Amino acid sequence: MNIKMWFVKKVGLHAMAPRWLKVICLQITMSEIEREINAVFAKVDLSKITKEQRDSLNAQITKMNLARGKGMKA
Q1: What is the enclosing helix (H) or strand (E) of 44?
Q2: Using alpha carbons only, what angle is made at residue 10 by residues 4 and 16, rounded to the nearest 5 degrees?
Q3: pTM of the entire predicted model
């Protein structure tokens, strides 16, 4: 774990940290997760994924985007 994520973990989980600081820590964590997922998908050969796997993956991505507030609610 790098220094930035160590700091985010310590501050973001601390009981006495203000809410606005916890929100910033959560946003940093979410952007780190997004960066890692994008790096994984950059290496994936999409021609080997079946339609069912693609639909399942799209459903999970939609669910994550809605949780982050970046998706459109139907």
Answers
A1: none
A2: 135
A3: 0.59
First to last CA, the chain: 37
DSSP string, 8-39: HHHHHT-TTS-HHHHHHHHHHHHHHHHHHHHH
Contact 66, 73 (CB under 8 A): yes
At position 43, the amino acid (one-letter code) is K
| CB distance 28 to 4 below 8 Å | yes
Say which DSSP state 69 is in.
Answer: T
What averages of pLDDT result for each successive group of 10 residues across the chain (74 residues)? Answer: 79 86 86 87 84 89 79 56
